[in-house]
Amino acid sequence: MKVIAVIPARFSSTRFAGKVLAKDTGKFLIQHTYERACLAKLPEKVIIAADDEKVVAAAETFGAECVLTSPEHQSGTDRIAEAVADMDVEIIVNLQGDEPEIDPGNIDYLAKMLIDNPDCPMATLAAEFQTAEQVSDPNIVKVIVSSCGVRDAYCEKEFEKTKPIQSQSPAFGRKCEILSSKS
Question: How far is residue 50's CA from residue 177's CA, in Å, rounded to a whole number?
């Protein structure tokens, strides 16, 4: 199966405009994420799906393939759908551009889950909360899981304390056909 990793990069973020181009370490934030993604073994390539020429220009400086997409997209998923529309790909691993420490093994794990489970259209990673404060933190995206590990819902709000919840990872994978059906 053809696997790629795509990093949607939105320049005009409402909380921190230009965040993906922050360069506090001497490298762009998105460059760190891109370089980590390139260490994964299963994706045949890694691309950045950007909404602004500034991101495209930055990506060129570190040799990344970057596709300029419409700035009108409402989500990273929409941005990715446009970026891969003409590509021959079966599995897409979506990586958040502001995750410079993403474990390349997690990228491979997501892709392998989808390869090994042909009836599964989507997969995501989640982790147990480390502190009680994280459960009520509105800045941490949460996922409710059933007893068999199936995602029931995503939410950035506080959950009922009785639900089994975990924090969502900054990466998820999906089969290309569910992206095609979205657009």
Answer: 22
Tally of residues, the chain? 183
Tell me phi and psi for residue 101, to 5 degrees: -110, 20
In the chain, % of residues over pLDDT 90: 51
SS3 68: strand
Tell me the three state secondary structure of residue 79: helix
Choice between 120 and 89, residue whose per-residue pLDDT is larger? 89
Partners of 124 in the β-ladder: 172
What is the radius of gyration, based on Cα positions, of the chain? 16
- Sign of torsion over alpha carbons 23, 7, 138, 14: positive
| Residue 161 CB contacts under 8 Å (≥ 6 apart), including other chains | 135
Q: What is the pTM of this model?
A: 0.80
163 neighbors 157 (Cβ within 8 angstroms): no
